[in-house]
Amino acid sequence: MELGSWSNGARLLLHLSAAGHLGYAVYYDYRYAQLPKLAVTLRLETPLWGKFKYITFLGGLVQCGYYALALAYDLFRVRSLRNLRDYILATFVVPLALTVSLTFWTLYAIDRNAVYPDLLDLIYPRWLNHATHTFVVVYALAELGSTRHRYPERSRGFAGLAAFMAGYLVWIHYIWFRTGIWVYPFLGGIDWYLRVLFFALIMVLGFVYYLLGEHVNRVLWV
Asked: Which helix or strand (DSSP H or E) is residue 127 part of?
């Protein structure tokens, strides 16, 4: 079998595996990984919008949708699918995977109880935690290494990423305004200027991750 056939088969397997794995993780998270209603009563969780207020869940939807799209392109080879695939990979998949994973594991290492108390182990299985916070990066890096992508003009990529991040910041502040509860409780335990610095740092790093993905793609494929 020619090398091209092997590489095409490997890409197909990667996209099928990632779509299936992350798709099931998103489904399980939405359907089964639910905090008890007491958490809302004790004001440990906001009563609004369920999973759709968490960047990990929203990012999981993006990641799962991307690999399903990449799988569709593998099968049908439609140019418009490739253009959309490449834009989503550059603008959302790589920056969000790195943002979610590195932010979570850094805060976890600093103070686990602030972001992921031991009690959550009873609700979120370890495999689910790693699917949403670790494997998203593994799949993104494997995708960069196995598939040639045409990165969009940087201004277009930055615009899409900025719109997503700014929209999410507005979203969690809206929820806080409506309920008086932060989506991530640790945000309520720090001063306002530290929150501003934290949000600014996350946004700056998002663009750094975009540039990192662009650089890796260029080194590997240009």
From this structure: helix 126-133
Residue 63 three-state SS: helix
Choose among 144, 136, 70, 129: nearest CA to 97.
136
Res 110: pLDDT: 94
Nearest to 173 by CA among 194, 151, 153, 196: 196
Q: Read off the pTM.
A: 0.93
DSSP 8-state symbol, 180: S
Taking the CA atoms of residue 158, residue 92, residue 222 and residue 218 in that order, the dihedral angle to the nearest 10 degrees is 70
- Tell me the residue type at 67: Y
- Nearest in space to 92 (alpha carbons), one of 69, 134, 133, 62: 62
CB–CB of 62/96 below 8 Å?
yes
CA dist., res. 3 & res. 131, Å (int): 30
For residue 63, give both structure tokens.
Answer: 């990641």
pLDDT digits (tens, 9 = 90+) for 121-154: 889 999 999 999 999 999 999 999 999 999 999 9
